Amino acid sequence: MDVGVVGGSGYGGAELLRLLAGHPSFKIRTIGAGRSAGRDLAEVFPHLGMSGPLAPAHPEAFEGCDVVFLATPDEVSLELAPALSGGVGLVVDLSAAFRLDAGVYERTYARPHTAAALTPAPYGLPELFRDGLPGRTLVAGPGCYPTAALLALAPLAGLVDPASVVIAGLSGTSGAGRGLRDDLHASHAVGNVSVYGAPSHRHTPEIEAGWAALAALDEVAPVTFTPHLVPLSRGLHCTVTAMLCDPAADVRAACLDRYDAEPFVTVLPPGVWPSTTHLRGGNAAHVGAAVDGRTGRVTVACAIDNLDKGAAGQAIQAANAVLGLPETSGLPIAGVYP
Question: Among this protein's residues, is 144 annotated catalytic?
Answer without folding.
Answer: yes
